[in-house]
Structure formats: C-alpha cells, structure tokens
Amino acid sequence: MTDGNLTHDGAVRDGAVRDGAVPDGVPDDVPDDLPLDLAHHTGFLLRRAQQAHLVAWAQQVGARLTNVQFGVLNVLHRLGEASQRELCDALDLDRSTVAGLVGRLEARGLVARARADADRRRNVVRLTRAGREVLRDVAPSASRVDAVLTSALTREERDVLQRLLTTVLRGVHGADGAAPADGDPAPLT
Q1: Which of 4, 136, 149, 156 could disulfide-link to 178, CB 3.0 to 4.6 Å?
Q2: pTM score, two decimals?
C-alpha cells in the first residue's frame, strides 16, 4: 500500500485497497485461460500510456523539468506555499519522493524552504522568482504533452477518459481520490 492510501495518522483511508485485498465488487477469481490478452488488460494499457506520456514529455518539454517537478511547481503556484506533506497529498507521492524533489528544485533555485508566516513552527516550500519563470516557460509545452497524448480523441472522449481515470484512482485510493490538486480530475503531474 502506498502512502497515498494512508491518512496523516497512518490509518488506511476509507475504501482504499489494502495490500493483497480484493475491493468489494471485484471478482477474486483468476482466469484459467492464460496468457491474458494484454490489449484488454487495464494495468498493461496504463503502463503503456505512461510510457507514451514520458516520450511526449521528453519531446515537448525536454530536460528542463520532469513531469513530477512540473507538478510541484504547478501546485506551489496554485497554493502560494505548501508543506512537504501538503505536496505529498496534492501529488499523491510519498514523503521521501517529495523530499528529494524539493531538494533538487531548491538546489536549482526554483523553490525555497522557509518558515510559514502564520506559524513559525511550520516549514513551507515556496516558488522563487526563477521557479515562476521556469513554470511560465514550460507550461505551454506541458499543455502540448496532453494534446499529443489525446490527439486521437475528440474533446468529449478526452473528458470521458479523464473522468474514468479519476474514477479508477478513487477506487484504488478511496473515496477522496487521494486529495485532488485542483478538484476533478485527480492529481496530475
């Protein structure tokens, strides 16, 4: 189970899939007709779609930022500042991943860690001027990635795809869909 399935106190989110457990309504029988037809296997198709996303990202954005680094900058732009825990929730990432991302972005001068103005005991991450400039420069390319990935779909089909993927994520992560960053659909990087 990933950190995204846990609440802040370590409890399992309501409706989250527990390790080895089969969610309600899902048949627990394994088909006898192996091998599986991977062209109709959702997990395999999602993996291939992720590969296509990484290729499109490399072609459109290049090495300026990874898609997850872009996600961090985008969330910080929206929120103004965030704790690393809030970044974990918004991006559905574990703490060690976010700590590494923030460290690398801070080393590049794109984010800065500071004490929160409202509560000096709380540490937050903020975009720097350089981070805002990079985000502004990369955003059109990042938008093209989505256009490339969904170029074979109509607008309506793209909307349906995003709703279905959000439903899948809610089914895996629980009723709250692992804290969507901007409402629906679920957090995207």
Answers
A1: 4
A2: 0.72
